[in-house]
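@channel anyone free to eyeball this complex?
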Amino acid sequence: MTRPQPGLAQGWCALSALHGRIESHVERALQAAHELSVREFSVLDVLSAQHDGEGGHFRMHELSDAVVLSQSATTRLVTRLEERGLLTRYLCATDRRGIYTDVTPAGLALLERARPVNDAALREALAAAEQRAELAPLVAAVRDLEVPAPAPTG
Amino acid sequence: MTRPQPGLAQGWCALSALHGRIESHVERALQAAHELSVREFSVLDVLSAQHDGEGGHFRMHELSDAVVLSQSATTRLVTRLEERGLLTRYLCATDRRGIYTDVTPAGLALLERARPVNDAALREALAAAEQRAELAPLVAAVRDLEVPAPAPTG
DNA sequence: CGAGAGTAATTGCAGACGCAGGTACTTGCA
DNA sequence: TGCAAGTACCTGCGTCTGCAATTACTCTCG
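replying in thread with the prediction:
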C-alpha cells in the first residue's frame, strides 16, 4: 500500500479506494434517510438532469451506459424504481423495441429531498478521505471538477 | 448528464463513472486471462506490496479496510483465494482472535503474470475514458498520481 | 412479401456483497 | 478468580449484479 508499484496501478488504486469509501458512506446515508441506493439516486439524478434540457427521457441502453451498469441490472433497477412509483416506462413510438424511462413527480420530489443528504454525505466522505495522504491529491482533483468553468462555453 | 448540477455531485458523478468504466474493462480482462476479479487482484497486490517492505501479512480487518470491503466479504474473498492456493491464513500468536493473511508463492506468481494484463487494460480504459469531455480532467489527475515523486531511494 | 441479420429489452442462473447474529478471544474491574 | 464489555472473525439470509439465452422488433436484400 505504501508503495506497491510506481506505475499506473498507483493512480487506479487510489481512485478505487476513494470511490469505495465515498460510495459506502453515501450508500449508508441515502439508505437510512430515504431507502435509496447510490445507484438508484444516480438514475434519478441523471434522468432529472435530462429532464431539464430535453425531453426528459432515456432509452434503457443509454441509461445503462450513463450509470455504467449491465443491461440486465438496468432493467431490474428501473423495474424496482417503477414499482415504487418513482419512474415511468413507456414504449418508443417510432421503434417499438425501444423503451423510454422518465422520472415521475414523486421521483422528482424524492430526489430533491435526497439531494441534500447525498451532498452532505459526499462532503463528509471527501473530508475523511482527504486525511489519507495517498487520497488527498485525488480528492483535490474531484473538488476542482465541481465548478471547472462556469463560463458557458456553448 | 451534460449538465446535472453544478455542485459536488458533478465531481462525484465523474469519479463514479470513471471508476465503473475502468473496473468493468479490467474485470473482463483479468477474468478472461487468469480467472481473477479486480478485487482478488487487488488483494494479491496489496498483500504482496506489504510483503516487500514488512512482514508481508495483514489482519483481516486491515485487509478489508485496504480494499474497502465489509468484513464478511473479506472473509469469503480470502477463503476463495485460499482454496485456490494463492493465500495462506494463520493465527496471530499474541492475539488468538487475529488472523493473518499472506500471499503464497503461487499467488505471487499469478500476480506477476496478471500484472501486465491489469496494466494494459488500465491503459486502454483510461485512454477510452479520456475521450469523454467530463472524464478527461479526472483521467489526467489519475495519471499525475502515478509517479508523484520519482525521487530514487537513497 | 419473406428470410436472415442485427438491435433492444427481459429473464434464468450462479456468484458476490452487506447486514445482522453468533462464536472465540482479550481486557477491565472487583 | 470471575464476570461484563469489547474486539476479531465467521455464517445465515436476502439482495443485487453480470453473463448467457430468449423474446420482440426493425432493417436489408432478393
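from a first look: The mean pLDDT of chain A is 89.
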